[in-house]
Amino acid sequence: MDTYHNSLDLVRDRSPERPVALVRPDAAAVAAHWFQDKFKGDVFYAVKANPSPWVIETLVKAGVTSFDVASMAEIELVRSVAPQARLAFMHPVKSRAAIAAAYHKHGVKTFALDCQEELEKILESTGGADDLNLIVRMAVQTEGAAYTLSGKFGVSIDQAPALLLAARQATTAMMGVSFHVGSQCMRPTAYQAAMSQVSRALVRAGVLADVVDVGGGFPSVYPGMVPPDMSEYVDAIHRGFGEMMVHETTELWCEPGRALVAESSSVLCKVDLRKGDALYLNDGSYGSLFDATHSKWPFPVKLVREGEASADLKPFRFYGPTCDSIDHMPGPFWLPADIQEGDYIEIGMMGAYGVAMSTGFNGYGEHDTAIVGDPPMASLYGLARRSIPTRRAEEEDARKVVRFSRPKGKAGVRRRRK
Ligand SMILES: *Cc1c(COP(=O)(O)O)cnc(C)c1O
User: Fold this and answer.
1) CB 3.0-4.6 Å disulfide test: which of 122, 146, 218, 296 passes with 259?
2) Which residue's alpha carbon is at the smallest distance from atom 10 of ligand 1?
3) Three-class SS state of 11
4) Is the pTM above the cut of 0.85?
5) Ligand 1: does its nearest atom lie under 6 Å from the Cβ of 154?
6) Residue 20 CA to chain centroid, in angstroms?
7) Could you tell me where in the chain the CATH 2.40.37.10 domains are found?
8) Is 283 close to ligand 1, i.e. is its CB under 6 Å away?
9) Would you say the CB of residue 351 lies under 6 angstroms from ligand 1?
10) Is the pLDDT of residue 83 over 90?
């Protein structure tokens, strides 16, 4: 991968025709260190948020050795980069072939389940193994997440006791509980509320859990979605854990996806056409802009142009390159009024569920990847010039056209990190 000081440096050098994922491995490393320092338990990276090999490599180097995987492809990917990693197969519905291959070929011992049928599948497909860590996924009632993740999976709190008991009796290794409060969870107390619901089910079942896995859901920071300090999340979890009926050696796990990688990538797109306030880009909802389309998230943007740009900022909407009319990102994205065909735009905070969502639909979706050394556009870990993107700051930032500068010594991110 080539390394550039920033997006303008790359544009000058390559005038890229395809979208470019601009990656900042240091930003993922900083987030990984933060979680390992502050979270009093084991940190599993949820691979689906960004399965790029550089992410896995960066996290392993930063000390993350546990991974939440959901498919054979994810298992093979992590194994190819980190043969020693500890893998937890946390998809509550797996094929028998996948369970068997995960256990027999890849040494996976930890499996999630949310019903009796899946428990039987796991036991049968592993030949009645007695060293399984069985994690019962529970559906919890919580508020405050941008994406709910309890709709599809999880045994209800009412029906959990029987399943908890069955899982407890099925293994001599660890029996655990897990849940997911929903992605981009804006309320730290959602974790504590979920833990108290789970605790009640455990008490009713009359079993103790060896693992309490609080799942993912830790937020990142986007325009209009500025979460409380990340330390409030781990504090709420530690309080919730303290209130649970567990034994002294019960392990606490978490499975962050978004929070570890959101800051670590942006995407550089090209404007292929301007029609009034509509910009037609070479990346869109079938590429890395899924959330900008389907959740209408107004990601932070900046114009990447050598030379002057209008100081007047205007709200724009984006269209992607495919012929589908769903390929539309309403924004609004604030950019200089004189933006035009041939300009480049850097879209920030795309490291989670961005590049990972890219498809090849309609012949688009191919992109390049390059490393950049400047800080992310926003940060919950103190990496950005400002950590909170307000509308005002956004506008001011967009007004500042990035100017070319030669890299001076080590890249910015590393120096900014104390
Ligand atoms: C998607 C997912 C995660 C990661 O969620 P984030 O909101 O990105 O932190 C963790 N665990 C499970 C089981 C998931 O499905």
Assistant:
1) 218
2) 216
3) helix
4) yes
5) no
6) 19
7) 2-22+262-399
8) no
9) no
10) yes
